[in-house]
């Protein structure tokens, strides 16, 4: 059964969740002059046929992995769109994970000064987070997502069936963003996630669909209230300033994004406690236990042990200094007060 929720941005759009929803994309895009499908090479072999008639549309295939989130790949995509003579009444369809969705969204924002695109996320991380909200970007050598634009999709189709082929490490990575969403949403969603943890580790479809809907609903509410991240949307960066620094220092692609975010959440909780900003003293241990139950690292040390890394505090702080959310030369953090309530724009001067 397909379930849909509405993201009240301008323009508004629907997020469709359920097994088999990719078969509905062709009907949604038949109003465009031409549709071009962007897909990573792995997903192309596994899931392109799920698009039905759109499988016969022009396809631009991208190599999977964080390395493709670059200006070089973006330029090739834009040149391919021009070669295909896609006009302003055309549409892009992004079939893949977060890297592919971010790249496609930015290409859509730039090509002929902006065309429509549709998100079809095939990873858990992209379904619960990256596909909703209109953030698009590529990476720079200095840091993650430093070149991008806000460009909302015209629709999102999250097909649960595509998760059946997702490698275990990538599924667990998605649970890092699920953990973040539950912590932001509040006690109800956090307790619900604790109750679902064993079913999620077993990858039970009903439990997975439930957390996709809960996470997407939270993001839809926050994005609708603050589409350009001027205020409350900043809370969605919980764990990300630390997490992006981990990814950069480890080397892009070595530590999956959601895994780095989970460690970043633990670091944010520790910093909140040390800064006397955390009002729920039991929350760090509770979140650590939940992270472990979900297969995620419960601390930076745990992440280092799992991935054979040694990440120095000075190197991490230097990476954080390039974070796009900083202001006035100061590193700014999202730090928890309690489940469902965050401190925004907390200055951080380093370890």
Task: Explain the overall architecture.
The chain is of the alpha/beta class. It has two domains: 163 residues, Rossmann fold; 180 residues, Up-down Bundle (Dehydroquinate synthase-like, alpha domain), CATH 1.20.1090. It is built from 13 helices and eleven strands. The strands form four sheets. A four-stranded parallel sheet has the order 4-3-5-6, sandwiched between helices. A three-stranded mixed sheet has the order 1-2-9, covered by helices on one side. Strands 7-8 form a two-stranded antiparallel ribbon. Strand 5, helix 4 and strand 6 form a beta-alpha-beta unit. Helix 5 runs parallel beside helix 6, helix 7 packs antiparallel against helix 8 and helix 9 packs across helix 10. The radius of gyration is 19 Å and the shape is globular. The model has no long low-confidence stretch (mean pLDDT 96).
Q: How are the SSEs ordered, and which strands pair?
A:
Layout: E1 3-7, E2 13-18, H1 25-29, E3 35-40, H2 41-47, E4 59-62, H3 71-83, E5 91-96, H4 98-110, E6 116-121, H5 124-130, E7 135-140, E8 143-150, E9 156-159, H6 168-185, H7 187-201, H8 205-225, H9 240-250, H10 257-274, H11 283-293, H12 300-307, H13 313-320, E10 331-338, E11 341-348
Parallel strand pairs: 2-9, 3-4, 3-5, 5-6
Antiparallel strand pairs: 1-2, 7-8, 10-11
